[in-house]
Amino acid sequence: MKSKLTWMLMPLLALVMSFSYAQEKTISGTVTDQSGEPLPGVNVIVAGTVTGTQTDFDGNYTIMASTGQTLRYTYLGQKTVERTVGASNTIDVQMEEDAEALEEVVVTALGIQRETRTLGYGTDIVKGEELVKARETNIVNSLQGKVTGVQITNTGGNLGGSSKIIIRGVSSLSGRNNPLWVVDGVLINDSQTPGNGSRISGTRDFANGASVINPDDVESINVLKGAAATALYGSRAAGGAIIVTTKRGASGEGGGAQVTVNSTTRFETLFRTPDYQQEYAMGSNGQYDAGSVGFDWGPKIVGQTVDNLPITGERGPLTAVPNNGIDDFFQTGITRINNFAVADANQRFDYRLSLTSTNQTGILPGSSLDRITIGLNAGVKHNEKLESRFSVQYTTTQSRGTGATGANDPNIISYSSFSSTLDQRLFRPWIDESGNQINLVTANNGNQTNNPFWIRNENANDRDDDRIFGNFQVTFKPWEKFSLTARVGADLQDDRRLIENSKGTVGRLFGDFISDNIRRNELTSDVIATYDTDLGEDFSFNILGGMQYNSRIFERQQIQGVDLLIPELFSPANAAQTIPVRDFAESRLFGIYGSAELRYKSWATLTLTARNDYSSTLPEDNNSYFYPSASLAFVFTDALGIDSDFLTFGKIRASWAQVGNDTNPYLLNFNFNPVTTATGQYGLNLNFPFNGALAYSASNTIPAENLLPEEQTSYEFGLDLKLFNGRLGIDMAYFNNKNENQILNIPIPESTGFAFRTQNVGRVDQEGFEIAIDATPVVAGDFSWNTALNFSRVESEVISLTEGLERVVIASAFNSVQVVAVPGEEFQLYAFPHLRDEETGRPIIDPNTGRRQAGEATTLGSVLPDWTAGWVNSFAYKGWSLYATADVKWGGVIKSSTVESLQTGGLVKETLLNREGTFIDTEGVIVTRDGDGNIIDRRDNDVPLLNAQDFWTSLNDNSVAEPYVYDASYVKLREAGLSYTFPSDMLGDGFIKGLSVGIEGRNLLLIYSEVPHIDPEATLFGSGADGFGVERASIPSTRSAGFNVKLTF
Amino acid sequence: MKRLKYILLSFVLAFGALSSCDEKLDINTDPLAATSADPNAVLPFVFVQYSSRKVTELGTRIPDVSQYISDTFNSPKNGNTSIFLTGNTWGMMYNQILGNLSLVKADAEAAGPTSNNVNAIATILSAHIFYELTSLWEEIPFTQALNGQEFPSPEFDEQEVVLNGIVDMYDEAIALIDSRPAEGNFAITANSDMFYGGDMASWRILANSLKLRALMMLRSGGANVDAQINATLNQPLMESNGQAAFLEYSGQPGAQNGMLTIITAFFGPDNESQNVFGPGDPIDEILRGSGDPRYDLWVARNDLPAPGIDQFPDPSTSVLSNNIIRATLPDMLMLPSEIDLYKAELALDGFAAAGSADENYRNGVRNNIKWWGQDIPGVIATVSDAEIDAYVASLAPPTANDVFEQQFLASFLMPVRAWNEVRRNQFPVLATPPASTISTILKRFNYPPDEVGSNPNTPANKNTDVPMWFENL
User: Fold this and answer.
1) Where along chain A do its domains lie?
2) A690, A761, A820, A960: best mutation site toward chain B, by most B Cβ within 10 Å?
């Protein structure tokens, strides 16, 4: 793999070498500030190129440039200076302070632009270029390690899978922890419509809504974390907001259109593979069985001849397949992302059109994802008073062969689906001319197991998703200080899925399919008026008022067809039974809002906001809620007149806010629902009409009489420092959120005839500390090193539920494993441990069997991390740039069912211990009790189990999960890359204006983890659930490496 | 400039149209749900949901407790009743079934005597569910159940109280049936009453027969219910298979018995090839060599040994036959053989009203063989009347244990009933499973965590080998 890559890059490198440097000369000089003091850290670049350097501590610099080129000097707080290179080899520059320059502008709630220095809350900006380094197909993953206070989880190596982001921990017990996504001021849906079936009956993790945002079109992402930042979003703001600003048109160098082409090719391989044992064959209790897939408790492999080799059934010698054949099954995935963008702008208009194609084939055979994204962003300044702007993104995605996850679905293939003596190559071909499955695995007792290539190639797991979102906006400025903006945005999603089991699939012999059409629409319109004024010399005042209308519609029509007549025909008429399901939900929100910003002498800013929401989901006579916020920004360096090279800039910020969390529609009425399915164990359901009868069932939930939105009250303090003339930036925040009125379906005794009552109860608090450090520790000549470190510690504690309620299930997995909310704790993993001796902590052994026993179900630790951190480094030398991002998630637990299956199946090396001899669980203790149950004697366990298999397979008896619960901490090298940007003079006067090439990789290295065999990041739950800390049969995650070429014309 | 104003004006108007007024917010009614439902729409849910969960949960997991099947997946036989087994069953019975039935009943009560028929059906089904609940957990919420308004945390009643209450419910149902007005009765559609198509005379027989079942439990527990038993024996009881209460499975997709679909979903086409359900040792011991036609009807490869306790069948053992483990296997709630054999048991104990022990015993055996060999819907292999008569004639006059043995056979594939019979009769004597963590066979379920967590009145769990009151040990 590696050698192939090097080989591919060779021509490019050769190209680099053949350019000449002939016309360049060395320019040097000193940069000083207006008082004549040397300025270190000034950026000096050759305009139109990426050749650049920084001044050293004495303000000196040297740079290579040619006569006639322009040198540009930029520095925070100083006006930009340009000098043309002439005959002289020395250029000294004196810079001038620029009051405006410090006013870095960010896009905040509702698309409002604000100067950073006036913000009373922390913001985290990720620039577009950070997102396209080792580009991800799900934009959420690109934020990994780059932003303080966010936690990102995904479900493994599934193409087109979902990623979940939560900001500053969990605030809601009711599953509404996902932040609001806003693109160019318009709310878009980040919902994940759950896959078909359940995690228990097998499901597919399809992408979350925001995953289609195209990183190539993103100018910046601003992560709004605190309630004060999101307060203008009112009743939907408690989970934070992610504000995406797309790129606008800009003219190219010297005017005219700017065309960029950005092309990436990467190769994906398995990130981590289990330590398979290769000494023992498939089977049980030392007896070989050709059908014992994923259960290698057979005889020692010594080349013995068996009558029925796996798959072929032929007589021959039993041999181990290297790495259990996973390399013959999983393939190298290929990702190709090509972006073409054309942009132009003049004083009246700007325009950017972007076309991106993404083509992926996954490591799972038969999996692929093809996506085309077209983005348009255009604005016209009609005259001094009127501007209009239009932006739209259309994305069409076809994903094929999404892997099944969960359990009880024949399509699930995980690391435990392989065996020491099962040669995957023998599975080909998987289908005969008549379309029947061939080369199945047949057990000694005649039971058959599917050919995995049949599963992957014949059973469809398809999703076709079309998505359009965009907005139209007009700004009218009748007077200098007044402006009126009206904006209408829409987000339309059309999601079609086909999940199918071909006739002849073992476990689904008669064939079935689910055709599922999902539509989500979101419409948002805003009218915003702003007025700016100065109140005397020192005060300025800015007010804003507006209103918003938001409507969300979810609609789903699904047809399930069972028992097919013609094998490959997925029409309802071809199915002996069809089960239609229809679902619909609509909610609307009307909000009026306002904000007032009072500034004093540019160093103190007080911002007050207020919003009143009217929601369709709340009782009609009580549907109005008010959300206030106040924030203060105080630039103490300016106020106190501090002017030193050590402390360049310092700001203290404080904020207080109250925001809400929206409620789902239809929670207020007691309903009888038409039922199409009568549920059974193992997903063995019956369906209506049954014997000709339709069915209705009463809701199992008693609705709330008067439901309120969840309420978050939050305060935050922050400190923003720039030291050593901006070479070191430190941003710290402390926050405290109180989340009350949690909307919960409280479990009530089912003996009342109902299972739940919807109520506002309970409280969750979040408290945390974040620090982000951005530094340029080394600038030496052409070399510079920039490093950014972020650290976040968040504790989301469940303070109370309701009286008498010990815990609430947040998400349920398998075998009695649940994620629960327990007062006084973070979200906990709740499962069965082994029965342990209180005094010694050792497992108590059953003296009759030598086995461990199950204890009472209990909490086994928080599923949320203690802290997360990211470390981004970049090194630049002339045109070379090297970067690497590492991230850490520390603390929390994970229960891995894949590890459980690997161990109970005797597939991995740790199960080799004592395979032949007597097996005694030496960790265990045997206790003797008196008549009252008191322990009167303890002795080391001396009762042997039947064998090693008995030990490993009995560890999870009675749903015990404890042996598979691990510390979920990990340290990963998330991304790394090396790129070279050609200096413009090397490109000559041709039409290529910029060229950079690079190699890059993602998910490169697992630096630390205590979880064996699998990627500790994998989770079972998709982005739609609040489940964390449980892994089951996840699709193995991947490591990817490749190269990137970027051309500018 | 004029044009500009128009553009602006039209934009504002367009915007205004989108966000006009408060009416826009009045949309919070689910268009796909109803605020009330006809009993004809709710009863099918009750029949089918009960059967769906019972067959797949209890029917596939606890048959090896009473050992009519040799081994099952995720069985509680070794002493640990999983929270899914208990939680799913409890939730289905109390929430899905009793919850809906109580709403049907409340509706019928509000409608008055013309809805007595619906009220009686809801009452009979509710009483049966309570009977199964107390069979599984002994003490259960009964007198305070299903009334969250007044009793948000229902107290648990002793088994004797529950069983007496169940008997009263059957009496109440019979009284409702007997006091129906001559006309104007609510029209129960044939499809929605999945037992009897709205025939209230059949429901009356079922109510009386189920009442006898509850009284037999009370009697076993030591309560003096002789008078009530005599009274019940004098009322019409089930006599022929035509009166049996069962849910028919058409065998079409979505209407296939879970005993088969667990095999087709996870293994292969049928039980005989996939070796999932095998005969339990007591079944093998009673039937092998007995000449009982049920042996061939139920057990395939029956020249081979039975799999043995805690063992799944394999090609070297006998296995339950595809005759019975099939898509169209009905879910049986009550068969007349049960009544015949109660009568035989009572006659042996001196109840004159029960008639002849010998005659009832033979009727019980005959009715049960006829069920499996002739009358069961979708019958495959049949047994002729002559064969049945010859076998019945060959039987010796019964002892109590003979009756108990037949009661065990007559509860085949009825998970709760079979368990009740082996606990009530202590016969056949069942071996404790080899890997059991308790001293006897499983005697009870533990309470599910959901009820424990939300109802402070839930009693502490007893060990799962502690006998229930009705065992009278």
Assistant:
1) 2-101, 107-269+334-411+459-668+703-827+863-892+970-1026+1040-1048, 833-856+900-963
2) A690
